[in-house]
Amino acid sequence: MSVCVWSVWSVWRVSGTCGVCGVSVACMERCVACVCGACGVVDVNTDRKISAKEMQRWIMEKTAEHFQEAMEESKTHFRAVDPDGDGHVSWDEYKVKFLASKGHSEKEVADAIRLNEELKVDEETQEVLENLKDRWYQADSPPADLLLTEEEFLSFLHPEHSRGMLRFMVKEIVRDLDQDGDKQLSLPEFISLPVGTVENQQGQDVDDNWVKDRKKEFEELIDSNHDGIVTAEELESYMDPMNEYNALNEAKQMIAVADENQNHHLEPEEVLKYSEFFTGSKLVDYARSVHEEF
């Protein structure tokens, strides 16, 4: 359930530049030293150890920064796809610009749409278009008219920063887990195991751990008034990317990956030892494209 919009690990990619301060670095060691020492951005007290609180602060700052960038990017794109400047963008207007960005002739695409002719696109592009159209429908606030305002267009491009999209997700989660139809979640409903059958002891152990984690998440993080029930409002607050408790939980999880000495801090040597994990493409891709999962 936890949602981290921006991961601190992306600053430690072996890219030749420190993601924190922009200083050119030759290797991972110098970048870690930059982060943990001279920069003092993540490691606020400059003790060459990063605590969960320090990482939480960094995550919150990067989330806010990403939100601002998303808004500016959305405004730029909106102006580009709203040629008549009427303050609304139709699906067809966006589709023309999107296919043009993929190398198609803008005039030919526009003519084909106007004449209701079939567009010749490859299978991969067609799949992307179908996914985009699904997101377009989700961003279109009732009453649906397939015309997006600038605010709705932001929801389309960056659903992770859309209050409406967040509420839509909460509604879907409650609908899927709510077994008695009261539009809220009890602990047994929340920890219900995903559909599947445990085939061996190892699988049972995994499921047991999953249940323990979900129980702790429910009781300590989501159920804010500790009444044993999670309402839609509580779930929405928890899933909000700007939720500080969510950021702290994410920070603790990331530290735990490499915390060999169990001091609940991240040290340069631990980052180096687990560099493959911290610089892995999957982790970087996740941090950069979490909005697509929304």
UniProtKB/TrEMBL annotation:
Swiss-Prot/TrEMBL keywords: Calcium, Glycoprotein, Golgi apparatus, Metal-binding, Repeat, Signal
Keyword set includes Metal-binding: yes
SUPFAM superfamilies xref list: EF-hand (SSF47473)
One GO process term, biological-process aspect: calcium-ion regulated exocytosis
GO-annotated cellular components: endoplasmic reticulum; Golgi lumen
Subcellular location: Golgi apparatus lumen
Family matches, as Pfam families: EF-hand_5, EF-hand_8
Coarse class of the protein's main subcellular location: Golgi
Secretion signal span: 1-19
Limits of the EF-hand domain: 69-104, 165-200, 210-245
GO terms of molecular function: calcium ion binding
Highest taxon of the lineage: Eukaryota
CDD domains: EFh_CREC_cab45
InterPro entries reported for this sequence: CAB45_EFh, EF-hand-dom_pair, EF_Hand_1_Ca_BS, EF_hand_dom
Similarity comment text for this entry: Belongs to the CREC family.
The protein, known as: 45 kDa calcium-binding protein
Organism, as annotated: Nomascus leucogenys (Northern white-cheeked gibbon)
Gene: SDF4
